[in-house]
Here is the input.
Amino acid sequence: MSEPTVTVELLGLARHRGGRAELTARGTTIAELLGSVVRSCPGLSDLVAADGAVAGHYLVSIDGERFIDDPAEPFPTGSRLLILGADPGG
Here is the structure.
């Protein structure tokens, strides 16, 4: 069985660094999805910190309803992943 496809929206500085507004990624956890995003958008190579967590200058949200920071968290089926820069003004 293949991993589900998730729509990922890039907002603000993440959109600028990623070079696009939206992409699809595959994975069942936040870590898997973020890895897929980095492979698709090399400009976001700094998205994941050395310990595997979301780097401090980014925010990650499920459907824009809540922010997440645990990379091991399972991703809910049918949701969208939003990534935005947490830099001031971004």
